[in-house]
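Hello,

I think I submitted the NAI job twice by accident. Can you confirm which output corresponds to this input? Input:
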Amino acid sequence: MKKPLLIVTGASKGIGKAIAQQAKNDGFFVILADTDLVNGMLVEAELGTGNCKYISCNICDEGEVMNLFEKSLEIGGEIDVVVNNAGITKDKMIWNMTLDEFDAVINVNLRGTWIMCRQAAKIMKTQNSGRIINIASRAWLGNAGQSNYAASKAGVVALTRVLALELGKYNVYVNAVAPGLIDTPLTQKLEKSVLDKLIAAQPTKKMGVAADVANVVSFLAAEKTQFITGQVIYVDGGKNIGANMI
Ligand code: NAI
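Support: Only one job matched these inputs. Its output is below.
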């Protein structure tokens, strides 16, 4: 039997890599989309060439996104699931943040995700089937030092809700996953003193791991999961309830 096809962006490391690993275990053929060729090829080798393919793609480039979907359709015939995971941070208090730092984060996290969603929507509407899963962040609720990032992820939540409305009647479900503090190359860049404070504010007093997010993506991608659309599922150790210093 032919495998269903799942595209994941930002698949070369961190949460995207964990999503790819889990999707392979769930029986998907996985398209690994990323700008990081070196790590992307390593993930491809790890998962096995019969289970996945790395395709270089900058999600901010319309032409590269078109190419990604064309090649994926050639491989799978249909696009079953698209996981929009690629994202970046450039944290600073607003009074120190440059316009370039604001634009760069909005460009990848919101504009790039929108370009991916538009292409996925066109194809899935015609197929009359599909799932789009957008990786937002708990930070969309607000995080000091992340005016660019939180705004971009709030945009991703809004995009998710709008697409659930637009695509519902075409049998396409669109949901968001909002991770909190997850141990990945992204958070490994944080200063230890900052990380210690963030962990202290966690109700769980620990970080999550990439597989925690991948498990929820796996649930949303599964055929047996039905009738859930336009939702934001938090994988944040309870941080969305509020900071917990006790
Ligand atoms: P990461 O930095 O470890 O990996 C991100 C991947 O995205 C990299 O492989 C990078 O090459 C790729 N990428 C960046 N820009 C791209 C572009 N324009 N086109 C294609 N690929 C691109 O990040 P991590 O931690 O794995 O984060 C993944 C997602 O989860 C992001 O959207 C992030 O905002 C979100 N997230 C992460 C949290 C965390 O604590 N690590 C918390 C909440 C959300």
